[in-house]
Amino acid sequence: MSASIASNLTLKQILAPVAGDIEQIDDVLRSIGTVDYPLLQQGMEAIIAAGGKRLRPAILFLVAKFNRYDMERLLPMSAAIELLHTATLVHDDTIDRALMRRGLPTLNTFLDEGTTVLAGDYLFAKSAVLSTMGGVQRATRIFAEALVAICEGELEQKFSSKHLHTSRDRYYKRIYSKTAALFAAAAEIGAVLSDAPEDEVQSLRQYGRQIGMAFQVIDDILDMQATSQELGKPSGADLRQGTVTLPTMLYLASASESDHEAVRRLVEDEDRYDELADEIIAKIARSGALDEAHRVARQFADEAKAALVAFPDTPAHKSLLDLADFAVERSF
Amino acid sequence: MSASIASNLTLKQILAPVAGDIEQIDDVLRSIGTVDYPLLQQGMEAIIAAGGKRLRPAILFLVAKFNRYDMERLLPMSAAIELLHTATLVHDDTIDRALMRRGLPTLNTFLDEGTTVLAGDYLFAKSAVLSTMGGVQRATRIFAEALVAICEGELEQKFSSKHLHTSRDRYYKRIYSKTAALFAAAAEIGAVLSDAPEDEVQSLRQYGRQIGMAFQVIDDILDMQATSQELGKPSGADLRQGTVTLPTMLYLASASESDHEAVRRLVEDEDRYDELADEIIAKIARSGALDEAHRVARQFADEAKAALVAFPDTPAHKSLLDLADFAVERSF
Description:
The structure is a homodimer. Chain A has 16 helices and two strands. Residues 1-6 of chain A have low confidence and may be disordered. Chain A has helices at 11-14, 19-32, 38-50, 55-64, 71-96, 113-131, 137-160, 168-193, 198-225, 228-231, 237-240, 246-253, 257-268, 275-286, 289-306, 315-329, and strands spanning 100-101, 104-105. In chain A, helix 5 packs antiparallel against helix 6. The first copy, chain A, is mainly alpha-helical. Chain A has a single domain (11-329), classed as Farnesyl Diphosphate Synthase (Orthogonal Bundle). The longest helix of chain A has 28 residues, at 198-225. Chain A binds chain B through residues 35-37, 39-40, 91, 94-96, 113-115, 117-119, 121-122, 124-126, 128-129, 131-133, 135-137, 140-141, 143-145, 147-148, 150-152, 154-156, 158-159, and chain B through 35-37, 39-40, 91, 94-96, 113-115, 117-122, 124-126, 128-129, 131-133, 135-137, 140-141, 143-145, 147-148, 150-152, 154-156, 158-159.
């Protein structure tokens, strides 16, 4: 879909320059997760084991390689960012009453709702403590502001779901809050903690922001394609919940009146997993909308790469470029 | 109940040395509460208007009067503490599905549960940003650690409710987390932000901790006495939810076997608002347990005052002493 594909590289290969450092995050998270209550402990360990790609900490580390690389500063903050991400997922799952995430059972399956809310709060709190341990107040503030952006995005999604018409700007604003804000914060914090000059801080933040945008657009495409085996949820889960994302927006732009009406009925109605939904989602998947959305993601990735143009040609630099390609070429 | 009563002083009189500064917190909170969604905005404004006593910020300000009093440092942090307190109340109310607090409707009455969780998260996030605005990393860390303690206390309460036998130590640990941790943090932060010498920081933290303990013991007594007009909930709400507090513990220590059994049935059973509960709560209220609990609160207040013994005799000093008395003499 683009000339600049690095599709033969695995994520593990891309992140090789910081692989050892990323592993240390697990130890920090494991020590943080130690709590007095066996049931909760079990849940926390499951969350940590489930892992995820540790992309945000990876970006923080890679970005810091351009300047002064001090693990004592970087490690607590990268763990803070991963933990904050985890905490937001716990609350998301609570709010959505999701029972599965990444094919594994969520905390909801063995804790009641109130306890899950508290468990998420506890992770937020621990991440906030970690965020103060790098010793740089500006980094802590960037961290806290990313959390504000995430909450604003969640509220926006909550209040704007069940609405068929979403402007492109509004969609971008929403995915910035949902995903790109924390990627941008990870990159900016990596820059600040490595004492990067201010112009580099801004370029690296821009890199983080645009790769985050690319990631979320691809997530929204994958949501349309996913089967329940892959993501632990039916394809088109967002749309079934009344949330219109880019593929649906692009599909609607050239849909017939009756297809338009069908989507409206799905979005404005209650949650449903029925034939109407299956049919619409299959139509979107067959339409050109997914390719078109893919081109948008590629554009964000290219902008991320462009933000790095003035930086020296180092292994970390190459990793960051490859990561931008990976963001759009991945299928999981 | 004690010789050292300042019962003729109103809270307003006690807090006079910092009254103007406390008022400024409302402006900060109001600017923070500005959000795009009318329904949420309405809820936030109601929370801010409902106010509460602003005791934690008051302690932060009063304590800072002993050293360098710099409003630019103190104001964002005092607002952060009040907002954090508010956020914990929002999540408490969500978890308890409470519809009233301080006689006013909670967010639960007009937002669904997921949105209320998000609204609480949003307030947490905003408080975290405010906590970085004083420019002193140590203060931000104390703030974040207080949030961890609060979450641990909530989890402890969640996992230990429905258990009849609570040791005194466990009870103290729980009320420390629930209440005293944030009072202690407010005092310690006030000390740190005013560049107090380290020994003073520790004494002032001790003051905050002990006055917080006194406050919570009194809250637990008031909970036993309250009628629904006063607190917006039936008397003995804690016990009805299966949470054993000091008055019940003291009552049980000299209760007959059959009274003991009655309390066990109430605690271990589901929530109920019935004749058994009414009868037990009336018995506890008539027993000497409330007076005995009052003596415990008085002891904490006296320890708070003792922590201030080496400080100069200033109006702020007098306020802090009077506040300790107020903590135990108040009836609301």
